[in-house]
């Protein structure tokens, strides 16, 4: 019985493990830049660029920065992004209220302004492991502009994973029923011996 319980615990631990993107480490440079909705976490960021701002950056440079963060989807064309991707001018605000809750991986570009006009602007791209992400607070300078550059929805397990999960639950259920049947049979034998006056 102990083996069955340990086996079931090991199986559940393996199937309920954290999503793959949770293992990405964050360098110390941007770890404190953002405060995210509970359940979401910062998974990485690009180097802070002091020369380009979001609306003037060249698409190859933008895609190179996204690739360094692990994005492998279709190429991003800044001027081709849908209108809903642009979170608008923040006018120095420190809080981004997103139009809807995001789940999966979100690549967010933020343009910062230190009050020196275009010469003081800089940008950074963040990779966020999102879970119902609907609000972001900027800890590092006031935001000038922000845009959702790309999203990758959370992946569903493969069919083989589902098959193994069902097989595992079936095996655990079978083992528990068999153990209960053996226990019931032993208990009935013990009752019969006691009723016959034998020492159990």
From TrEMBL:
The alphabetized UniProt keywords are:
Membrane, Signal, Transmembrane, Transmembrane helix
Q: Where are the transmembrane segments?
A: 159-176
Signal peptide from the UniProt entry:
1-22
Protein name (database record):
PEP-CTERM protein-sorting domain-containing protein
Q: Which organism is it from?
A: Sphingomonas panacisoli
């Amino acid at each position: 019985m102990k083996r069955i319980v340990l086996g079931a615990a090991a199986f559940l631990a393996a199937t309920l493990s954290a999503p793959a993107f949770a293992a990405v480490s964050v360098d110390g440079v941007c770890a404190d830049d953002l405060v995210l909705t509970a359940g979401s976490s910062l998974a990485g960021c690009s180097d802070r660029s002091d020369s380009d701002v979001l609306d003037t950056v060249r698409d190859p440079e933008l895609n190179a920065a996204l690739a360094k963060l692990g994005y492998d989807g279709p190429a991003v064309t800044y001027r081709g992004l849908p209108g809903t991707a642009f979170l608008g001018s923040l006018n120095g605000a420190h809080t981004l209220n997103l139009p809807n809750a995001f789940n999966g991986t979100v690549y967010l570009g933020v343009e910062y302004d230190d009050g020196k006009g275009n010469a003081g602007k800089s940008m950074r791209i963040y990779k966020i492991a999102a879970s119902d992400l609907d609000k972001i607070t900027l800890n590092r300078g006031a935001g000038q502009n922000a845009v959702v550059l790309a999203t990758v929805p959370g992946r569903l397990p493969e069919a083989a994973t589902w098959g193994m999960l069902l097989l595992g639950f079936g095996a655990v259920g079978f083992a528990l029923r068999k153990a209960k049947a053996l226990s019931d049979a032993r208990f009935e034998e013990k009752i019969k011996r006691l009723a016959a006056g034998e020492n159990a």
